[in-house]
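Handoff note, outgoing to incoming analyst
You'll be picking up this chain. Sequence as last confirmed:
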Amino acid sequence: MNDKQPSDEIFLRVPARVPYDRIVRVGTAALALRRGLSAQQIEDLGTAVDAAMALLIEPVENDQTDDSVIECVFRLQEGGLELEAARSMDRPVSPEEVSRFSRRVGPLVNDYDLDETSKRIRLRKLARTQF
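Most recent structure output, in case you need it:
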């Protein structure tokens, strides 16, 4: 028998358009609260999610249809929450955007990864510091 409990995973798929980024942020906040994060930690994580969505969502000009989606996996882990988000269609990410993202998000989460090639972002926030 395995004593280690698998993490709960919640999947969310939203259109890669600005009005839907709020759904990802609100979902993140609700799950973070469930994992015991403080109000400040939830706010920090929300800011990090906003930065991630800004990289993944490209505003559609002239009401053109954009069929791309953002697929999110929330992992409820003991003591924290992890969000992995990826865009289904390519959108170039400039080195300046990567640098800005890293400066903004680094201090707000315990761990993050940004894979510019696959357009995948992973954020991890713990309710408490683990030694």
